[in-house]
Amino acid sequence: MQRTDDIGWLSIGLSERGRFTILDHGRLDHVVSELGDPANQYPALCVYIGAKAKDACLRQLYQYNNIKRHVSAAEVKLRYDMGSLETSRPVLFADGGLEYKSSTSSSMIGCVKTERSISWDSPFIFIITGGDSAADYNSDRSPLERGEEYMEQVEQFHCKLDKNSPETLSECFSAIHFMRLERSHLSECARYERLRVLITGQLDDMYTVRKDHGAIFNATHLVALFRLALQHTAEDICRSFDFVKATREQNEVPVSSSMAIAHYLDIGTKAGVYYEELAPSISSALVMDHYVPGMLALEPRAVFQALYRSVVFDALQITPVNQPYRTIDELAGMVERNMVEQFHKLESTGQSSLEFRREHLRESSGRLCRIRSNKICLVCLLRVAQHRLDCGHAVCDLCAQLFGSPAAGLEYSFTITACLCCLYQRPLVIDVLPPTMNPTILAIDGGGVRGVIPLEFLNLIQENLGLCPLQDLIDLAIGTSSGA
């Protein structure tokens, strides 16, 4: 017996409270798992809306697929084009109808991976998320609907869209085409040839647009971004989904970034370093912060505007720099321009953002080495200083791991052979806090008997530890008198 996969992807259901829900059956994850190299394949997604005419079209557009073989109760199905499965740009196609099946409920549909409650009130639900091409088959409607009554329904639908969305429906698409498929004197294959050529051209155009804007998603990215986009759509239909912020869902920009950069501007100015030198240093730190290995190569201007502009703007308000003829917007723009230039250099050289930051610090060490602080990490500029080197520069736990090498025979210990800021050659072994461990704090009250007894306890603990120094197990020690 042949295996038959459930191709159901998305459904509209009803919760126990009678509210609409979006049901994700996990089909996209399954489709991506069927690809040979998801990290290096960049799928295109086509969406087809209709019924019988749509199914007839799919049989001609995707002749390597057995369209009739798979059925599903879900409103939206998802499949991959067998003819492009092993290519670098496989085509995924979703199809379904616009009608809602009132009998559908989350308890009646099996294999639901995720259920999202729709928080917005709307008399209609119309979702196309992340598609490269969409096709609607008008011949699936009755002759009456294709006439005056159908146009009235379209007008009502547009009114509802205008009421519930800040943008018109046409603004959601880069181009809209109408095509009449001839019925007479043509074979089925020839009848759909013009449509096939049109869709293929649209996919090529979308790939070019995405490439120009750094928005080419591999299959792994597509799964993660779709999950976040679906969650966003269920929560808020009036606000556009921000792809840049979505890429930082699990790694947000540190909340103290504005204060950290403001402090860097302050100590840099006091050290006699001009803003023209501080701006590229800040931008290279931002490039390192965002463009980590595996990150989408999103357009740097969009990244700066979405993630860092407010950070830099606030920092410049906290610590004004000596630039009387430039506004704060212009000063923030200098960081943005440097970030764009550095990103393009990064792309042309093929360097990692980590190596790019290391090289920038090395080239600027003659001037920037005068900047010292025990408050912020002088490598990433965004985090609190945690380890001070002998030269007076400080780094955080993360930079110690990124730029250091694992110490031999020790866990969570890293050796920094030279200071990145001034190139001072003196190795330092840095112990970082393991991710599954909370900080260990030792507090001893001093004075009289109370100061003697805790010290004896510490001696007993040290005897049991043997060769392991007690101080290596303590992250912070505080106390007064003998406790100090």
TrEMBL record:
Keyword tags: Lipid metabolism, Metal-binding, Zinc, Zinc-finger
GO molecular function annotation: zinc ion binding
Domain PNPLA as annotated: residue spans: 442-484
Locus of motif GXGXXG: 446-451
Transmembrane segments: none
PROSITE patterns xref list: PNPLA, ZF_RING_1
Name of the molecule in the record: PNPLA domain-containing protein
Locus of motif GXSXG: 479-483
GO biological process: glycerolipid metabolic process
SUPFAM superfamilies: FabD/lysophospholipase-like (SSF52151)
Domain of life, per lineage: Eukaryota
